[in-house]
Amino acid sequence: MTTRTHSDFIPFRYRLGKPAKQYVPWYDPVLKTARLGIAIITLLKEQSRISRLSFGDVIKKVCEFDQKDGSYISSDPLAVERYVVVHGQIILQLFANFPDDMIRKSPFLTGLMNKMEERHHTKWLVKKKKISPRSETNLNPTAAVGPIVSKRKAMQATTTKLINRIWGEYYSNHLPEDSKEGPVSDLKEEDELEEHEENEDQDNEEEEQILLEGTSKKHAGSKQTKTSLGNAEIRWKGKPEGKTSSGYPVYKQAIINGEFFSSGISVLVEVDDFPDIYFVEYMFESKNGRKMFHGRMMQHGCHTVIGNAANETEVFLTNECRDLGLQDVKQTVVVNIKRRPWGHQYRKDNIIADRVDRARAEERKKKGLPTEYYCKSLYWPERGAFFSLPFDTLGQGSGICSSCKIHEVEKEKDIFNVNSSKSGFLFRGTEYSLNDYVYVSPFEFEEKIEQGTHKSGRNVGLKAYAVCQVLEIVVKMEIKHSDVKSTQVKIRRFFRPEDVSNEKAYCSDIQEV
Predict the structure, then answer these.
(1) pTM of the model
(2) How far apart are CA 445 and CA 427, in angstroms?
(3) With 90 as the cut, is the pLDDT of residue 378 above it?
(4) What is the pLDDT of residues 183-203, one digit of tens each?
(5) Burial of 92 (0-12, 13-18, 19+ CB in 10 A)
(6) Which helix (H) or strand (E) holds 413?
(7) DSSP string computed for 181-233
(8) Are 376 and 389 a contacting pair, CB within 8 Å?
């Protein structure tokens, strides 16, 4: 059995900088409360008898402060009292550290503590245990041994590649004067330590593999040599194999300057003077004879919610699609569409495959070869998630795009329509009929009060939706085509138990109205 001393642990170093402007809402209330506490202490010291000022008297005097004063809160006594009680812990700490006993035992402080107890703003206090020195001999044989100085170099705090890059970009964008002081020291990977940690915890292994790769560049594809196809000879190979929804002939393959292009490949297109990667869903010929393709944009990970944690060789399929000309294609891009097995039993195999892919990407990068990307997920920011790729409908070259269907469904949800008999209406993709039961905002029936979350998770001002029944659909007669603004519904409201009384809310079923 061995003991560890403080010198066995690696010290961390932090650089303290000037607080950014976005932190003002966090530290400004603390400074304001500190100024208020100092003003109250000064006010009590000016009194001949401190015991003459109670909690209420101090609140009244604080209301009389000038608005230009840094400790001014409000001229409303209730607002001042609420502020003092909510921030009572800061004020109590100031009074506890003040050297004057009369201030620490003032009636104001007693009244403040009582108010805090009424509003449950109390704090458990832990008494410090007194440790008496031991007079007997320490039998630990290593007690007399001096501290062991670690041979490992003291490492800076959070010096992983990812964190280092995140803070480096932050300082360069928001605090350029601090970034000029000096770059963060170079990071040296310790391979043996990483192998030990990987064998020790598979979960940490996967997380490191995901997070240690990233990119801060706009598009890695823009670094490659671009070959413009604007004046290239473009012709179709084969006959049309179908038509688009607009009636344009669809082709499976095209030949551009002797190079074959087909559906299911990825190309680099410069749109609005900026290169983007598009996945070719199908190719077609427009009415004026222009050779076109319909593509879905592939987003680099750094432009998603992953940000700096993304792998620079991974791209994500999106639902953003458009028609583009084949002459706008700069070059083809290698994007491997991966189908990964899902389940815990495949986790280790996926980790090994990711390690091999990263090593291969690093080797190609060192040799100066073009970047090869891979895609294994669909990025859908409107739904706030990443989804599996739709392999059954991806790159079929049939003239049908699943992303276009999604946009059509979304457009249909914006259509509002009332049927001729006024017995139902279509709103946001849902059909409503007479006598249907619907949820309605509770603030349609009463004024909306200030909402907030208080201590112990108690919510103030939050109410459940009201359950109502549609009785009649009212449309203005002078309007030919009904819209949302000109249409109203007559409803019957059902009250929840808590809307009737607290007793009902306590003893009734939660589903009863």
Answers:
(1) 0.50
(2) 21
(3) yes
(4) 444 444 444 444 444 444 444
(5) middle
(6) helix 402-413
(7) T-PPPPP---HHHHHHHHHH-HHHHHHHHHHS----SS-GGGGSPP---TT--
(8) yes
